[in-house]
Design goal:
four-stranded antiparallel beta sheet, Rossmann fold, about 375 residues, elongated, 3 domains, three-stranded mixed beta sheet, alpha+beta, 11 strands, Isoleucyl-tRNA Synthetase, Domain 1
Length: about 375
């Protein structure tokens, strides 16, 4: 699919200097839906938003399919002379080459809806009447302190740089916590929140897996109330995903099932529940299925928990040995009833993103949002 088919079908014209343009008037005669992706009437389509209007065009909205060569630019031979493809035609050509004329999903930023994607549709359909994209998905921008992230503003960074400090699961949870069409404001605090949430989810599932593997007897079947909770989680997930992939609602809906799971695992009242094991198993299966769809189900829970702990240590510039030493010093202070010193050690670690926890099995730690960090 390309310029040759568009020209053969009568939708293009050539200027004296070798520039080739797409005629939106010709296209609109047979395709009155031109502009529907952006929700614009034909008369609203104006050129000149990105570059100065070329007075040689038949319609100001016409766009270049091929540009004649300019000094210092890459150029290739063509029937119209040396030149290069236009901005829009490159995408149509690549999509047709690798995906064919029809494919399911085409993505891009909100700023590409018009004119880029609108014109991509027009030229693709002009070249091939069977051309079709089932779903167009346009994402919001990443902002930093309410400014769009861009190289020109100097506030640009790569995913690789983010992953040096944060686990991929934390980043993914952070991203799907905002609807894909909405702008997402990046900050270390928001990533810390996502990382803390990820640890909580995976630790809960790991505790559940350990409990179920240690208890062969399933106990009593679930009550009608328990079944209703599972059904509510299922229907909420299906409804939210059908609502234009409303992933923030899916994440929010996990809070109550996870709380119930922790009650069943760790509270006296929860452990007395006769249908406890059956309920835990059902919750585990449903939450795992949701996380798998979202790309948030790790292959190994112990491994991802250890990786999250390691990333937290990297952010705090501490090692496991450093934390162990501080925990030992805290234990010594507690034994000497020097509670001020004990609290100071705990608070210092918490400010570095390390939460000390005293359990019947001894003192341990988990990552947390640094207490000295604010949004």
């Amino acid at each position: 699919m390309g310029i040759f088919q568009i020209m053969e079908n009568g939708y293009g014209y050539v200027l004296e200097n070798g520039d080739v343009y797409f005629s939106v008037d010709k296209y609109a005669e047979k395709h009155p839906t031109y502009g529907c992706l952006a929700g614009r009437d034909f008369d609203e389509n104006r050129a000149g938003e990105r570059v100065a209007i070329d007075e040689r065009k038949r319609n100001p909205a016409d766009f270049a399919l091929w540009k004649s060569a300019k000094k210092g630019e890459p150029a290739w031979e063509s029937p119209w002379g040396l030149g290069r493809p236009g901005w829009h035609i490159e995408c149509s050509a690549m999509s047709a080459e690798h995906l064919g004329p029809c494919f399911d999903i085409h993505g891009g930023g909100m700023d590409l809806i018009f004119p880029h994607h609108e014109n991509e549709i027009a030229q693709s359909c002009a070249a091939c009447s069977e051309s079709r994209v089932s779903y167009w998905m346009h994402n919001g921008f990443v902002t930093i302190d309410a400014e769009k992230m861009s190289k020109s503003l100097g506030n640009f960074f790569t995913i690789r740089e983010v992953l040096e400090k944060y686990h991929p699961m934390s980043l993914r949870l952070f991203l799907i916590g905002t609807h894909y069409r909405s702008p997402i404001n990046y900050s270390n605090y928001q990533l810390e929140k996502a990382s803390d949430r990820a640890y909580y989810i995976f630790q809960t599932l790991e505790d559940c897996a350990h409990c179920l593997s240690s208890n062969a007897d399933a106990g009593s079947p679930m009550s009608s109330e328990d079944n209703a909770c599972i059904e509510k989680l299922q229907s909420s997930f299906q409804y939210s995903m059908a609502d234009d992939l409303l992933t923030p609602a899916v994440i929010a809906a996990l809070s109550e099932p996870l709380r119930i799971m922790n009650d069943l695992l760790h509270t006296k009242q929860g452990r007395k529940n006769k249908s406890r094991l059956a309920y835990l198993k059902a919750l585990q299966a449903e939450i795992n299925q949701i996380l798998e769809v979202l790309g948030l189900l790790p292959r190994s829970l112990p491994q991802v928990l250890e990786e999250l702990r390691f990333k937290a240590l990297c952010r705090s510039n501490l090692s496991n040995e450093d934390v162990d030493i501080q925990i030992k010093k805290r234990a010594e202070a507690r034994a000497a009833k020097d509670y001020d010193r004990s609290d100071k050690i705990r608070d210092t670690l918490a400010s570095q993103g390390i939460a000390v926890m005293d359990t019947p099995q001894g003192t341990t730690w988990r990552p947390c949002i640094p207490t000295n960090m604010s949004d």
